[in-house]
């Protein structure tokens, strides 16, 4: 096997050497060889360093996986690899304008980094959050002076992919098409995100947000800011009365209890408290202060709880919107339409009022298909035909639906308790609990085994036809819950009996195979 001659460059390009490797050498072993060859490479912990291939502009690149061989990456002689530290800093901006610098592993996909980022910030349900890339205007904003304004987030999409009418409507409706979400399946470096760039932390999936209250002030504040911005920019349409109610609570959060001598018309910059359509309404600031007066007894935390609770009552809350085109009935013409995705349904909405026209539960979705220009849903027996729309955001819609389904399945798995994996056709048998007995659960198959119910208050001695015999004990490693003890009788009949005991707070479970 011919050797592979590679140029190895230390981080920063300060030292470069050519080293020969066998193509079947793993990346882990190659790093070890490099440390032996480079005196300069012997620094820090070996696990903190790896091999990196950068592009010609040195903006993007790929980390080589430690378990892969060099030959897997189709490297050629004289290719350059960089031996560099995996750890790097990432600037994360919160919705309230605060910026946190977090140390992350650059070689890990963003899905793994979200665990670290959310843990550092104090968020437990990391799978419901994502990172958004901001445009240059947002990067250069002086946020402390514009603390309560909304951030500008835009996707870099070629103008040829957008028509003027749809673009104008998209900006008016504030759809998720404008969100440039960071791909969780790829690393930061693969997406060209370097240490100088700041990303925005934002809730992407509204699944467990109804459980957030004053006991979780970090997530409560993030949820409040995101809900507030969505109301102010028109993502959630509200009536004038509702807009004043939200504004009154927001004034209390920002300025404290109502003060008659201070809080008078002219005090507020209304564009920071009301949707644009209501800012110029005559006498509306007086109505805002009337609502403000109603909440004088609330603390700031309780006011945020009230704001988010009221926001959840809006029909559009928790909906992610996409502007699409659908075919008119009986005509060969495409017209604008809003497609919405929530934690439990896919919605078809009016593109002007955001009124829900049709709701399809996620449980009825059998299949979906995405192409660069179309998105199709198959509801199986629940609908007579497919629902297909024209959109350039098909992949983003798929990621959202798949993300909600993944979260639902994960939540379900944590609630379910499978003492042991059963087989097809098996049934579960349960007996009631008595003080001296346990609840017995059994996977009963069609092979003729019988359910044995015995008192656990007596010694576990098995008596075959020829008298008492000793038995062996062992642990069952494949079961994930409880403590397990096996009992085997070698004397009487072929079906080996294994009694498995699993202890919980109120019950004991025994399984006889």
Automatic annotation (TrEMBL):
Kindly state one GO CC term assigned in the UniProt record.
cytoskeleton
Q: What subcellular compartments does it reside in? A: Cytoplasm, Cytoskeleton
Show the Pfam families listed in the entry: FERM_f0, FERM_N, IRS
Cross-referenced PROSITE patterns: FERM_1, FERM_3
Q: Which GO terms describe its molecular function?
A: integrin binding
Q: Which InterPro entries match?
A: Band_41_domain, FERM/acyl-CoA-bd_prot_sf, FERM_2, FERM_central, FERM_CS, FERM_domain, FERM_f0, FERM_N
Supply the alphabetized keyword list: Cytoplasm, Cytoskeleton
Q: Which GO terms describe its biological process?
A: actin cytoskeleton organization; animal organ morphogenesis; cell-cell adhesion; neuron differentiation
User: Does the keyword Disulfide bond feature in the UniProt annotation?
Assistant: no
Residue span(s) of domain FERM: 88-412
The UniProt entry, under PANTHER family, shows: RHEA, ISOFORM B, TALIN
- Name of the protein: Uncharacterized protein, isoform D
């Amino acid at each position: 096997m011919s050797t592979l001659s590679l140029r190895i460059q230390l981080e920063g390009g300060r030292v470069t050497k050519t080293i020969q490797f066998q193509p079947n050498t793993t990346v882990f072993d190659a790093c070890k060889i490099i440390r032996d060859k480079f005196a300069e490479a012997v620094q820090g912990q070996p696990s903190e360093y790896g091999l990196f291939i950068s592009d010609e502009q040195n903006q993007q690149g790929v980390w080589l996986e430690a378990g892969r061989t060099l030959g897997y990456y189709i490297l050629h002689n004289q290719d350059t690899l960089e031996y560099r530290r995996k750890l790097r800093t990432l600037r994360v901006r919160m919705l309230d304008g605060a910026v946190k610098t977090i140390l992350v592993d650059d070689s890990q996909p963003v899905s793994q980094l979200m665990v670290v980022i959310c843990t550092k910030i104090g968020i437990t349900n990391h799978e419901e959050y994502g990172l958004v890339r901001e445009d240059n205007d947002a990067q250069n904003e002086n946020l402390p002076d514009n603390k309560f304004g909304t951030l500008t987030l835009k996707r870099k999409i070629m103008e040829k992919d957008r028509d003027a009418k749809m673009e104008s409507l998209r900006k008016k409706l504030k759809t998720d098409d404008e969100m440039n979400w960071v791909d969780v399946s790829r690393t930061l470096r693969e997406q060209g995100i370097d240490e100088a760039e700041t990303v925005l932390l934002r809730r992407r999936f509204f699944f467990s947000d109804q459980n957030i209250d004053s006991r979780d002030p970090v997530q409560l504040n993030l949820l409040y800011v995101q809900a507030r911005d969505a109301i102010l920019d028109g993502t959630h349409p509200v009536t004038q009365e509702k807009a004043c109610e939200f504004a009154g609570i927001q004034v209390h959060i920002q300025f404290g209890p109502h003060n008659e001598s201070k809080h008078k018309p002219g005090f507020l910059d209304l564009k920071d408290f009301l949707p644009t359509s209501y800012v110029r309404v005559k006498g509306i600031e007086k109505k805002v202060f009337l609502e403000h007066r109603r909440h004088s007894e609330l603390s700031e935390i309780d006011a945020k709880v009230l704001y988010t609770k009221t926001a959840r009552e809006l029909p559009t809350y928790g909906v992610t919107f996409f502007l699409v085109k659908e075919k008119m009935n009986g005509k060969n013409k495409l017209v604008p339409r809003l497609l919405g995705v929530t934690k439990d349904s896919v919605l078809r909405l009016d593109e002007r009022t955001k009124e829900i026209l049709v709701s399809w539960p996620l449980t009825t979705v059998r299949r979906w298909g995405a192409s660069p220009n179309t998105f199709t849903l198959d509801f199986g027996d629940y609908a007579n035909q497919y629902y297909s729309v024209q959109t350039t955001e098909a992949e983003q819609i798929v990621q959202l639906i798949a993300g909600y389904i993944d979260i639902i399945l994960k939540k379900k798995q944590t609630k379910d308790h499978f003492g042991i994996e059963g087989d097809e056709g098996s049934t579960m048998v349960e007996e009631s609990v008595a003080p001296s007995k346990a609840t017995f659960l059994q996977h009963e198959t069609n092979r003729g085994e019988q359910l044995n119910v015995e008192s656990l208050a007596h010694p576990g001695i098995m008596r075959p036809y020829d008298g008492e015999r000793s038995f062996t004990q062992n642990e069952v490693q494949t079961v994930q819950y409880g403590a397990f003890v096996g009992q085997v009788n070698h004397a009487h009949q072929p079906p080996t009996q294994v009694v498995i005991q699993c202890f919980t707070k109120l019950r004991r479970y025994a399984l006889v195979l």
